[in-house]
Amino acid sequence: MISLLEYFVFMLLIAFGAGFLGSLVGIGGGIIIVPALTLLFGVPVPIAAGASLIAVIATSSGAGFIAYGKDSPANYRAGMLLMTVLATGSVLGAVATVYASRSSYEWVVFLVFGVVMLVSASDLYVTRNREDHAMSVDDPVAEYFELNSSYYDHTKKKRIEYHPTKVYHGLGVMFSAGILSGMLGIGGGVFNNIAMSSIMRFPLKVSVATSNLMLGLTAAASVGIYYLSGFIYPLLSAPVVIGILLGSINGRKLMTRSKNSLIRTLFILVIVAVGIEMILKGVGIII
Amino acid sequence: MKCDTTSLIKKILCYGVISSTLLMVSGTIIILVLCSQAQSPLTLLIANDGFGSSMLNSFTICTSEGQIADFFMGSGILVLIAIPVSRLGITVVQFISDRDRKYVVISAFVAVVIAISFLVIGPLEACFKL
Q: Does the interface ipTM go beyond 0.85?
């Protein structure tokens, strides 16, 4: 039996590690903290997801404060348009998890989480050396929603124009990303980037900055359901939020000073291992 | 987005994160100082399975002093949740003042979804255990 002090230290350390690693490879800590809480400590999925969503809001707001401003490459219109399906999906995902937990279908959540981790790992692997790309294809839907824009690239020292495309496809993927975010308690930044960068052809910098705008709001959309259903525990959420915030601040500092290809590779391997473990738990091989 | 909105949102993000973190840190310090002999809440958390009627809080593990800690930590969580919601509110107002009808409708839709989550689905879920 561990003491209260030991409990707080454990939680702070795990959350710090999640925030630190997450910020090194450009994702939130939710994808690490939820498996850590459920697999290591046996915390029920909706409680772990609730704590993780609170942490997502904290890190997205903290990062938003640093990055927000006139020079930010974020596309506010695209962010708001995509939020319509993200928020809707997120609410549905939260309802699904709460329902699954109450009706002994929690294994489905483990299974989905495992698959999501493997997909995230493959995306991190594929995009490890990706360069920004600007497209010049005019899409009438993007024009209607006024999504064509430009941003100043400080590394290239020039203004980059971009014309996103396949808006409806992107909205479809974003809806799925919202469901996963609400269901699993993760920010879903990886899936936002797949939709915006790979499908809609936003430049990577624009999609990352815009995704960060949306993460907090996506989490807020589903956190109300967890909160009012009694799955948000201050005693769990507080050390998780403090740890993840401290971890992500320190991770960002290190990221600016180091080449992170080795860390990224290790991180991908960890995600694959944990993803497989979550799938095995989902199918009942690990109890 | 106009400059005044930008600086307002920056202030909300900055003060929101700082105040919520301070509240949570205060709650953590209070419970560690006043309830140093208490056991880890993990056993209760897992045994309770999250579905029992007795919600786990600081009071469960540390009687009355725990309530103060719970108040601080709970308030920190509420402040955090309020940050993106107020940010959305400001964005809606900005689109209205810009007379951008298309995005007023889009951002209002997002606000309605979040309102439904907090005011309809959440309470229904809590009351009827759907």
A: no
Smallest CA–CA distance, residue A103 to chain B, in Å, is: 10
In angstroms, what CA-CA distances link A283 with A51, A114, B46? 25, 11, 21
Q: Domain count for chain A, please give it.
A: 1
Provide the 10 A C-beta neighbour count for residue B116. Answer: 16
Residue A287, domain member (yes or no): no
Q: Which residues pair with A152 in a beta bridge?
A: A159
| Cβ proximity of A22 and A252 under 8 Å | no
Give percent of chain A above pLDDT 70.
86
CA B16 to CA A214: how far, in whole Å?
17
Evaluate if residue A252 carries a pLDDT over 90: no
Q: Say whether pLDDT at A246 is over 70.
A: yes
Per the structure, the complete domain to which residue A120 belongs is given by 4-282
Band the pLDDT of B50: cuts 50, 70, 90.
Answer: very low
Report the pLDDT averaged over residues B107-129.
86
Least CB–CB distance from A1: residue in B32, B39, B62: B39
Strand partners, A158: A153
Which band of pLDDT confidence, cut at 50, 70 and 90, is reported for residue B96? very high
- Compute how many other C-beta atoms are within 10 angstroms of the C-beta atom of residue A204: 18
Of B21, B41, B76, the CB nearest to A235: B41
Are B76 and B27 in contact by the 8 Å Cβ rule? The answer is: yes
Long-range contacts of A8-14 (CB under 8 A, 24+ apart): A8/A239, A8/B28, A8/B32, A11/A236, A11/A239, A11/A240, A11/A243, A12/A239, A12/A242, A12/A243, A12/A246, A13/A243, A14/A40, A14/A243
